[in-house]
Specification:
The chain is of the alpha+beta class. It contains 1 helix and 4 strands, in the order αββββ. A hairpin with a 6-residue loop joins β2 and β3.
């Protein structure tokens, strides 16, 4: 019987605690509902303000009563009257292309030789190339005729190894 009384007392205490917790949760729920209603009203107000500002931002002298001087320095983009092309850029399939070809007798020839032997450091100044290793031509069109400069890279043998000159950075590609 004593055990039964202890169990009843602990159950009553637990019931009181649960009722207090329910009251706290109900008060919290009411507070959160009030806060939610305030936030929803604020959200609706901000959405309306945002819509009005976007409408005003899009206004200029072409679509409103505003004078052209109020447009500011911002240049209006004109839409293209031409329809979009359905083809890719560049040469189309089946188009026979044309490319530049190297000329046999260039107007000028410029040679590039190595300055010194890399392993031993011997200077190659004043020496002539033993052979031309590669050629690149630059085609320019000065008036009244084009001028072709052929750039030739030479090689010199020094201390048992062959050293090659270097093209300047502006001479990048070769003409076939």
């Amino acid at each position: 019987m004593l055990q039964h009384a202890l169990t009843t007392t602990s159950l009553l205490r637990r019931l009181e605690n649960l009722e207090a917790a329910i009251e706290r949760l109900q008060a919290e729920h009411a507070r959160l509902q009030t806060e939610l209603a305030c936030l929803q009203a604020e959200h609706a107000r901000l959405q309306a303000e945002n819509a009005e500002l976007r409408r005003r931002l899009g206004m200029h002298s072409s679509n409103s009563q505003k004078p052209p001087s109020s447009d500011g320095y911002r240049k209006q983009r004109a839409g293209s009257a031409l329809p979009k092309a359905k083809r890719n850029f560049g040469g189309q399939k089946g188009h026979t292309g044309k490319t530049r070809c190297a000329v046999e007798k260039p107007d000028r020839v410029v040679g590039y030789l190595p300055k010194a032997c890399k392993p031993c450091g011997r200077s190659f100044e004043g020496e002539r190339a033993q052979r031309v290793v590669s050629k690149r031509q630059v085609l320019a069109l000065p008036q009244p005729k084009r001028e072709v400069t052929e750039h030739q890279m030479g090689a010199i043998e020094g201390c048992g190894c062959v050293q090659q000159g270097a093209y300047p950075p502006a001479i990048r590609a070769s003409v076939p």
